[in-house]
Amino acid sequence: MDNLPLIKALVEKLALNLNVPVSCKIRIFPDLQHTINYARMLENAGCSLLAVHGRTRDEKDGKKFQANWSAIKAVKNAVRIPVLANGNIRHVDDVQSCLEETGADGVLSAESLLENPALFAGFRTAEWVLGSEESNEDGNLDQADLLVEYLKLCEKHPVPWRMIRSHVHKLLGDWFRIHPHVREELNAQSKLTFEFLYDIVNRLRELGVRIPLYGKNTHGGRISSNGIGA
């Protein structure tokens, strides 16, 4: 964002020399017109799909700073290429709200998906159902289930251990807050193994920890402060 001519040259080079479409992802500028000019520049340079994160470069904390969907809508209206909206997608209901407000062709989610990979399947973490007037029920799925599925995929398709460690923390963060000594044992491991990580899941279950993911129901029921349905 500090060197727009360089960015333009890079996109032009890619668009001219690749046999696949070029996509770009940007953050917004504090000034809306600068953002629109940026998006049009990328489109003219050969970008075929543009993802717009509705926060500025300085707005790193997604829970502190709300994404600006109005800015994304302005970009969508200013270009001819498909636009994906990014920011404030915390659960599946946000998807429809974002599409309606921005007119975007699709949505992206980042941090929320790291904590809840089942987001687009309609599952919510307790954080987003706590105190809700909507009716929710235990979806018979939790983040430990998702972690086990993720680890099995990693065994088949190896990725760096630092990435696996990060995903374990994201998926089990709420569980670790209940039993921080398990998190400390994870952090103490300089070298991870799948056996150790599967054992962490088993130990948490043996300690009686289960924080379910929730889906909507039609039977009422509120969620207590510990994430357990009542």
Explain this structure.
With 230 residues, the chain is an alpha/beta fold. Helices cover 47% and strands 14% of the residues. It has 9 helices and 6 strands. It has helices spanning 4-17, 32-45, 69-78, 92-102, 111-115, 143-156, 161-178, 180-187, 194-206, and strands spanning 22-27, 47-53, 83-86, 106-108, 136-142, 212-216. The strands form 2 sheets. A 4-stranded parallel β-sheet has the order 1-2-3-4. A two-stranded antiparallel sheet has the order 5-6. Helix 1 (4-17) packs parallel to helix 2 (32-45), helix 2 crosses helix 3 (69-78) and helix 6 runs antiparallel to helix 7. The chain starts with a helix and ends in a 14-residue tail after the last strand. Mean pLDDT is 90; it is low at 218-230.
Mean pLDDT over the residues = 90
Major β-sheet strand ordering: 1-2-3-4
User: Span from first to last CA?
Assistant: 49 Å
Low-confidence stretches: 218-230
Radius of gyration: 21 Å
How much helicity do the residues have? 40-55%
Q: Biggest β-sheet: count, sense, barrel?
A: 4 strands, parallel
Please state roughly what percent of the residues sit in beta strands, choosing from under 5%, 5-15%, 15-25%, 25-35%, 35-45% or over 45%: 5-15%
Give the overall silhouette.
globular
Tally of contiguous helical segments? 9
Could you tell me the number of beta strands?
6
Give the ordered list of helices and strands.
HEHEHEHEHEHHHHE
Structural class: alpha/beta
